[in-house]
Amino acid sequence: MIERYTLAEMKHIWSTQNKFQKWLDIELAAVDAMVELGQVPGEAARTIREKACFDVGRIQEIEAVVDHDVIAFLTCVGENVGPESRFIHLGLTSSDIVDTALSLLMKEAGEQLLKRLACLREALLDRAREHRNTLMIGRTHGVHAEPVTFGLKMLFWVAEVDRDVERVRRAVENISVGKLSGPVGTYSSVDPRVEEYVTARLGLKAAPVSTQVLSRDRHAEYMAALALVAGSCEKFATEIRSLQRTELLEAEECFKAGQKGSSAMPHKRNPITAERVAGLARIVRGNAMAAMENMALWHERDITHSSVERVIIPDSTTLVDYMLDRLTGIVANLLVYPERMRKNLELTHGLVFSPRVLLALVDKGLTREDAYELVQRNAMTCWRNGREFKDLLREDPGVAGVLSDADLDGLFDYNYPVRRVDEIFRRFGL
């Protein structure tokens, strides 16, 4: 059973409410750390924990005046706490809170994407099992090559999803880092033990060294991982779109009851969701480039990265979340047409067996060059006049003198090229 998640989870992660809650969690953890270090009175900390809260609307009112989001947040919390609020944000700088909170949010978003990838993998595995032995033509350069199975195509995608999972896991691990090291990372106004306490409590690691901000190579790696996931989604969606072309029609995006494909052409059944997935990958790739440009900051910090990240990180995680959800639905409900696959497999009148004939001739003692010339000559005739490839070979003295009719009949077996598919499936425990 494939577990499906609504799109509300990612929306909540990037909500303003959740962002400010992360800020408050960090501030309260820092107060508790300072209590343990004897820097903040225990009674004051209890008051702070009891009264500390915020109102998004009020923060926005204050920010409209002060033009600084962290100050607006602290002012709002201070209005609720009272005099003890002087112990909040003690010795910290804005980026201590903002960067550590961003790491928490990116970690949450990444974990959500891992759930999505697991759902997609399960859907692909289901179709791989179902069509393990469903014969179809493999294509290179868009031209018929040798037979494969549709299940093997799905299994190929499973392997790519597995790599995407590992990439996202690494990216989540490397972004799960916080810093509370003060204005330029020297702990001039805050004890390093505060950073260790806060990050441990929040499920992060303390950065071994930082400036006023965390190094943006971490964020760039994360965004690159998202771009690769989006690229996989685009790749899968593009293949489905190609297989749905009228001339092929081997698989088709589900067309639900009541759906309409064109305002002008009532017959149309278009792969609109697959096209949507493919198109959105372009945005995610572009955002990854912006993340890489964010790596170069002036000295110990500027804020050229900040405005960019407020757009690209929520947008990319949300888009990839959406793409994975929609692609999972496409795969789970994909209409597959084995009869059409078989018909297309036979379109070239047996030309797909040319590699077997070539090897058989070589095995009989011909040089590869001579065997290739014999096979290609008959293959080109088959292309031109549409006669059965096997018949042409039988009539060619150069072939008939080496391979008997029984030999040729044995070579023209659609199951032979896919005889090792089960071996490939066993690598996945199937």
Detailed description of the structure:
The protein has 430 residues and is mainly alpha-helical. 63% of the residues lie in helices and 5% in strands. It folds into 2 domains: 92-254 and 268-342, Fumarase C, Chain A, domain 2 (Up-down Bundle), CATH 1.20.200.10; 348-421, Orthogonal Bundle (Ribonucleotide Reductase Protein R1, domain 1), CATH 1.10.40.30. It has 18 helices and 6 strands. The strands form 3 sheets. Strands 1-2 form a two-stranded antiparallel ribbon. A two-stranded parallel sheet has the order 3-4. It starts with 7 loop residues before the first helix and ends with a helix. The model has no long low-confidence stretch (mean pLDDT 96).
Helix and strand content put the structural class at: mainly alpha
CATH architecture of the largest domain: Up-down Bundle
The helix count comes to 18
CATH superfamily of the largest domain: Fumarase/aspartase (Central domain)
Mean pLDDT: 96
Specify the overall morphology.
elongated
Percentage of β-strand residues: under 5%
Radius of gyration, in Å, reads: 30 Å
Under CATH at level 1, the class of the largest domain stands as: Mainly Alpha
Would you identify the regions where 5 or more consecutive residues have pLDDT less than 50? none
Topology order in helix (H) and strand (E) letters = HHHHHHEEHEHEHEHHEHHHHHHH
Helix content: 55-70%
For the biggest sheet, the summary is: 2 strands, antiparallel
The side-by-side strand order for the widest beta sheet comes to: 1-2
Q: How many separate domains?
A: 2
- Per CATH, what is the topology of the largest domain? Fumarase C, Chain A, domain 2
